[in-house]
Amino acid sequence: xxxxxxxxxxxxxxxxxxxxxxxxxxxxxxxxxxxxxxxxxxxxxxxxxxxxxxxxxxxxxxxxxxxxxxxxxxxxxxxxxxxxxxxxxxxxxxxxxxxxxxxxxxxxxxxxxxxxxxxxxxxxxxxxxxxxxxxxxxxxxxxxxxxxxxxxxxxxxxxxxxxxxxxxxxxxxxxxxxxxxxxxxxxxxxxxxxxxxxxxxxxxxxxxxxxxxxxxxxxxxxxxxxxxxxxxxxxxxxxxxxxxxxxxxxxxxxxxxxxxxxxxxxxxxxxxxxxxxxxxxxx
Length: 283
Ligand code: 3HC
Hints:
This protein is an alpha/beta fold.
């Protein structure tokens, strides 16, 4: 299963990052989002990231010119039809993901691998909505994608070993360290990380300390690269909340109940960096 052309569906923070590292590794990449403004924002963001890399001496102008030739963007999912793998990085909603993968499995060539960048959802359930459940696999990237080295590769119930091997191989080629994980809610990282972030939300709502003090404590006392509430802002408080609610539903264990501080911020539309406000102000 040779992979030379990568499709990325969803041009938000994660999709743009996946497209960036794939292009930098020399793959031909098609980045698609059905919302034109999202594609434009992603393309501008990539130009800015590469200009910064040239300024820092990490890339040359020739490198960047080459990236431009490898990357194409658009709003029509039909552009993905001849890709060897499509990495879907759209909204974390199982019904929408199922619908989109069902459509992709109709328009793509028979051998195309359908990968879903999901933080916690069932690969098997998404795969079952397609006409090729043996070629659907989870590929969980971490934010910021250009910096974080890990990709969790998650086979669904029917994913073949060939598909897992090709996904692991491709992950290495784009500079990532793949770890294969079984399909359980949250896989490895989010199963551990999200309850930790959620507990910080509990500590905040109980008034133990301010957001800045909680983050300072975890950075200086536990060696974390950033505090848990700043991390919630980076990931998106809505995403953290959705994962907590999903864990509670799937495991039926009240230890996964979400912090009310998160729920209130989501209700207020304060989702973190992407809305300019979360536990901190980014405007
Ligand atoms: N995009 C691209 N590059 C970025 C970046 C971004 N958003 N943020 C930082 N960087 C780069 C910088 O350009 C810099 O690169 P350089 O070394 O080439 O100059 C490098 O990262 C270090 O950045 P800074 O010096 O500005 O800042 P820090 O040293 O504090 O690092 C950080 C920032 C990498 C974000 C670090 O704080 C960190 O590792 N935080 C933890 C992030 C984390 O846990 N992510 C996982 C979230 S969970 C997830 O995504 C799963 C999901 O399903 C919920």
